[in-house]
Amino acid sequence: MSGKLKNIDIEDYWNVINYNYGQIQFAEVKATAIISIYSLIFGLGYTLDILDEENIYSFSSGFSGVVHILLLGVSFFFIIASLRRCVMCILPRFDFTVKKSPLFFGDVSKYKNFENFYDSLEEVLNDENTYRKHLTQSVYATANIASTKFLNVNKGLKHLLRSLIFITLFFISIYAI
């Protein structure tokens, strides 16, 4: 049995590429949902501050004030870390390289004009080995993009959970201490 599989259909490559695009979109939706959750939290906090007659956000100078500031500081640290990761998911920077390909949408602008693009696309589509190589390169690129986005959004989600824990502890401490 040889190391190369000859029975792989071209459609299989496109299925993997489409799957990767779906994962990219899903990661971006998750990042947007996390940002929306923070918007709701900040909106709720602002509303509570407006409706608050006792001004629960004013901290005393004793032990309880230090605890409140510490909990709030840790919360803001995780909030900033989470938002940073979500932005990195939506606007990532990639550190992988692939050759210029007429099949990859990010490379279309690298062609000088339509004629150069057309010639390059015809060359790729008319040679099955070259076509498979370019499709494999697109699979590699989209998989890297999806992986990077999921790494960032999953870290953003972990930071969201940590920030919610510390925000909850902050509110409990306001009423308990």
Describe the protein in words.
The structure is a single chain. The chain is an all-alpha fold. It has one domain (10-98, 128-176). The chain has four helices and no strands. Helix 1 (10-51) runs parallel beside helix 4. The N and C termini lie far apart (72 Å). The mean pLDDT is 86.
Q: How is the secondary structure organized here?
A:
Layout: H1 10-51, H2 63-90, H3 114-125, H4 128-176
Brief digest:
74% of the residues lie in helices and 0% in strands. By secondary structure, the protein is mainly alpha-helical.
Largest sheet: none
- The helix/strand series, from N terminus to C terminus, equals HHHH
Strand content: under 5%
Q: What structural class do you assign from the helix and strand content?
A: mainly alpha
In helices, the fraction of residues equals over 70%
Distance between the termini: 72 Å
What Rg is obtained from the alpha carbons, in whole angstroms?
Answer: 25 Å
In DSSP terms, counting alpha (H) and pi (I) runs of 4 or more, how many helices? 4
How many structural domains?
Answer: 1
Task: Round the mean pLDDT to the nearest integer and report it.
Answer: 86
Q: Write down the overall geometry.
A: elongated
- Please give the number of β-strands: 0
Are there runs of 5+ residues with pLDDT below 50, and where?
none
Core attributes:
mainly alpha; 0% strand; 74% helix; 4 helices; 177 residues
